Backbone:
């Protein structure tokens, strides 16, 4: 069956290869879902979307190579197919999660350097977990969410800015930016069953994943509404400890959005694996836990492997995030000053509407900081001496 | 073939199961299409989308159970599969149509109660029509559109508010809310061929449905442009009779959007069934009108059943809507006062942009009315003594 | 295999017919991608989207007939299927590209007349290239992009307005219109692999196309970021020669967006065809260059045919564009005056928010110019005597 993935030649077409539709939904989530979600910052919309594009375009290519080396390198060639595109998109997803933790506090060159490192570690972690340890992680709770979140959070810790308050006034949202975040949310919600089931094998595994995701989404949506109605204004779900005690400035809240759910998902996976039996899964056991089905491993052993996989992930993420943070502190990079975080104007130039002809796709030209003293408006220039992270 | 639908185990995978793509498009329509369409109200955007999510998340789960009992209850279990997800989405669609009729005039608890009842009646009506009467309703003209519209309209009649004028100034749209309605419209337009063909069998039935929908959409779009150009400003397509004579306050115009087209579609279905022959459909007759193909029913008989199905639907919808309206009038529910209809602030709290960290997905916390006297702005408080529906 | 395309009856279902998902993505691109992209003009948003709908709805139907006559007319019937919908969407794409060149400078009746002609020429050109010359053009570099761009540019030249400066102030974008252009861009980016691979045969051809498009997109995105950072504000990629020397007013910049890339793609296709060998393509040669695989043509001959196909396209586009321009100059048509270009109010009436009931889908009614002297605001009326193109 693995042959279908190889784009070079298709062997027997009895069962059609994975239709590009499975890939398409993953792709929509990465770009519309993630991309729009981060547009909530009131003056950072073009950076949020623009850097999402930049990072994703880079990560997709680099991970095609990295994951290609790990998974499909034969006879001197990396074989690519729909699975390659999906895996690369997943890796880009992890990078965008990390981006969410440091959103607004880095420049594009820093982001590319982060992706350069993170993609390699993602591929390595995924290889260790899935190929060496035989861990199952269909929705990427460990390989995507936990890894991406803690890589980004540790990196954010290393890049801690004590003077970030200078940009506080820009750290919120306004009506139109909220609208975009809402579009992003809706797209993520709609396409999550497809996202989670894309890497699973056609048939039982895919059905099971899609259905489970679908019911989880509806149930958690209702629970969220109920809980927020009960908790109300005073008891909001803030994360004060993260910033004040641990010095982790988490712009998008990736800890509660990806980190904690990722760990929770991994732990539940430990439990579920430990309880897996032939009776519960029927013929489906082979596609969900093949080693159990073949009798090569007990359910308890699988559960232990799952738990170990979580620790391996946390280690790769933390060590990687620390290393990444140190790299990003290199002085010649394009880190914005503390007073100019969450600000589009440092990196984007809005072209005057009277230039002609007006090309639809090149409204904003990416600039490097330092060339825009005149663009920097009065309010920016008049601030206190700036400190750079 | 029905085995594929069963998520428990797949029998022979020679013909691949319905790809989740068919489900995906239906899902996109329900959430982006319906959700965004109702954002046209200038101060009710977050309620429109938020309550769409709430209602849909609830209806999807409840109808999975209800329809599961009707269609796939065997051996003590409800069997679920892609078809379950699609059918649940269709039921949620009918609930959202009803929501459109009373948009802005009810609180979330009332909506959940409405859905609790409506989902049961939807399932019952669908079972009577499709399983008992052998009626064909691929696009849901009767089961979704007619049912949803008249359920909502009768419910709106029971909830008639003579003093609704107090909220009149909020009942319109502004530029940015129109933009969302436009996005919703475009998504509905694009995905309608998939929506209509999702429940049909792969092959002839699906092709026929997708093609017919596609051509209908293009033709009706052109006709609408032509007609509006001819009719112009003075002869606009208003529905004055509905409100002034029949006391039905129909916020979204679901009568002309779903009610009338639903009935028209059902009547055309009567005609088309009456004219069905083996010559016209070829091998496709079996998938479109199986009872005709097997010779168990004449075309005229099928037509009569279709017509009877329309009446059954109207009865379920009217009786259900009346009952629903009476339930929603229960005094302890969260109905907004006449002067505070179409207003987000009663139910949603916008969090200050300076609270941190800012979690992308929890910008608004659902509140219950009564706890927000201080939120209620001057203009709201200064109004005449409020009457409650 | 071609039988599957025929909606009338399906032969053997061993290999499933092209799923509607392939069509769905093309459809999304045409309506959300193209439609939103052209909303960048600050006061022409409703016209951009509205006329996109109008043109597409018309072109889809007319090209179903035209292409039906060319490709699938048997036994007195035009046979339609999923391929018909995809081909019609592609033709609509070419028409929308041409629309981009003259965006803001024509009225709806002119646009319909342009589409009436262009669809016929599109069908003819496509037939000559694909069926007679055996040219390969999977992504439509010649048949869609080159043809659509140069048809529109030549038409724009014939409709040259020396006094267009009078509308200059409306020819730019503002924040909210840029947001829409950005949404359009993102959708086009996401769905391009599906768009390009939709017409190819399932299996090798489709994989190859999707993968190539995917990698091209990521690589060109990175290159664009890099280049714009290097070029910066002074050296922007303007097209001054087009307007000042050649008198082609190209509103959307379709020359650099579709024209030049279309020609470049065609030339690269010439090169690639010339270098095609059995070794390079393996079994895939048959689906990419069938005449080469069967030994009926040499690679060099195929390359020459590809080049000739480019010239045929340019001729059809130029002659067609000239003829179209002359037709559109007919005095009784609805061309806007020079001072009222890029202006929604000539064609659309915004209904007062207090009219009720408010139907979601009919907010704007299409109007014809001349009936709106009172709508034309002071600033419009007070201008110099208007010249009409």
Residues:
């Amino acid at each position: 069956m693995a042959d279908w993935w190889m784009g070079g030649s298709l062997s027997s077409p009895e069962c059609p290869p994975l239709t590009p539709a499975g890939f398409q939904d993953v792709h929509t989530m990465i770009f519309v879902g993630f991309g729009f979600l981060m547009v909530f910052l009131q003056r950072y919309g073009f950076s949020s979307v623009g850097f999402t594009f930049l990072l994703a375009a880079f990560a997709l290519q680099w991970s095609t190579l990295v994951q290609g080396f790990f998974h499909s390198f034969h006879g001197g060639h990396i074989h690519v197919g729909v699975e390659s595109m999906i895996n690369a998109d997943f890796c880009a997803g992890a990078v965008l999660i990390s981006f969410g933790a440091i959103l607004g506090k880095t420049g594009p060159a820093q982001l590319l350097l982060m992706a350069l490192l993170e993609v390699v570690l993602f591929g390595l972690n995924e290889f260790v977990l899935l190929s060496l340890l035989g861990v199952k992680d269909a929705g990427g709770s460990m390989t995507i969410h936990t890894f991406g979140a803690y890589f980004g959070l540790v990196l954010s810790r290393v890049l801690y800015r004590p003077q970030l308050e200078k940009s506080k006034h820009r750290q919120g949202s306004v009506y139109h930016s909220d609208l975009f975040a809402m579009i992003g949310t809706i797209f993520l919600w709609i396409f999550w069953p497809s996202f989670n089931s894309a890497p699973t094998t056609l048939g039982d595994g895919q059905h099971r994943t899609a259905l489970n995701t679908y019911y989880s989404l509806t149930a958690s949506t209702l629970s969220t509404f109920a809980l927020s109605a009960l908790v109300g204004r005073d008891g909001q779900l803030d994360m004060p400890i993260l910033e004040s005690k641990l010095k982790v400035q988490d712009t998008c809240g990736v800890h509660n959005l990806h980190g904690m759910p990722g760990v929770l998902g991994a732990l539940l996976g430990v439990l579920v694996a430990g309880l897996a039996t032939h009776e519960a899964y029927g013929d489906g056991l082979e596609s969900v836990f093949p080693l159990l089905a073949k009798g090569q491993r007990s359910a308890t052993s699988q559960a232990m492997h799952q738990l170990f996989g979580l620790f391996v992930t946390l280690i790769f993420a933390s060590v990687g995030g620390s290393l990444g943070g140190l790299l990003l502190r290199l002085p010649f990079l394009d880190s914005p000053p503390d007073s100019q975080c969450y600000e589009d104007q440092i990196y984007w130039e809005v072209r005057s509407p009277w230039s002609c002809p007006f090309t639809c796709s090149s409204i904003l030209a990416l600039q490097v900081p330092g060339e825009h003293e005149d663009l920097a408006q009065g309010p920016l220039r008049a601030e206190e001496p700036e400190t750079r992270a």
